[in-house]
Amino acid sequence: MATKANKEQVATFLGALVTLLLGKHSEKISKIDGEKIQQAIDTDDKAGLLDRIIKFINNGCNFVLVIAQHVINFDTEAKVPFEGAKLDTRTGLTGNVSFEPKKWIAKNELKDGETSITGHEFLKRLQAGKKVLPNSNMIDWLIEHQDEPGVKEFLDQYRGKVLYAFGDIFRNSGGDLCVRCALVSDERWVSRCSWLDDGFLEHDLALFLANTK
């Protein structure tokens, strides 16, 4: 059984890889995507970059697990948005669904001239349009995987927006209904909820699966 490497051994291993890349195996540098490296150099999220490198190493230096993680389980029990909340209704997607960014859409349901609609009306229009809605498991999955390639790029295009998963509707003890969402706070995507009685604005977007027929 392999022993656990200490901090010094980890540093030596990473240093050896760099030495090989710059020395004996320098020809392999030409196989590296220069644009991707420049993006890594330019990014302000160095901590997120390190997290992705660590995940790669912890997976035995292969990407099999990373690819497998891009599957959302919509059958997992819903997480309530606050203490005392209960799941009122669950509709939409079930089972395991592969996360393919191009197949997901996020948009509002405002009509021309409208600046806001209630959450009740928002959900009614989504249902009338027969949108395939994710439940709140997608909110948790996106937040958990927000630093991973593919997921990060998908979320980056919606910074400044609020992403809703209308497949789950929750109820408080007074009977008021709410829906869970994801938004950026302190540069990180986090979970929040909004009441259906409130007004939903242009930046409030519902997630749904594109019609692939």
Throw out a few tags for this protein:
7 helices, seven-stranded mixed beta sheet, 11 strands, two-stranded antiparallel sheet, 2 domains, 213 residues
Structure write-up:
- The protein has seven helices and eleven strands.
- It has two domains: 7-68, no CATH class; 71-209, no CATH class.
- It has 213 residues and is of the alpha+beta class.
- It is elongated, with a radius of gyration of 21 Å.
- A hairpin with a 2-residue loop joins strand 8 (177-185) and strand 9 (188-195).
- It has helices spanning 7-22, 34-42, 46-58, 64-68, 119-128, 137-144, 151-156, and strands spanning 71-73, 86-90, 96-98, 104-107, 117-118, 162-164, 168-171, 177-185, 188-195, 199-200, 204-209.
- Residues 64-68 have low confidence and may be disordered.
- The N and C termini lie far apart (51 Å).
- Strands 2, 4, 6, 7, 8, 9 and 11 form a seven-stranded mixed beta sheet that branches.
Q: Can you lay out the helices and strands and say which pair or pack?
A:
Blueprint: H1 7-22, H2 34-42, H3 46-58, H4 64-68, E1 71-73, E2 86-90, E3 96-98, E4 104-107, E5 117-118, H5 119-128, H6 137-144, H7 151-156, E6 162-164, E7 168-171, E8 177-185, E9 188-195, E10 199-200, E11 204-209
Parallel strand pairs: 6-11
Antiparallel strand pairs: 1-3, 2-7, 4-11, 5-10, 6-8, 7-8, 8-9
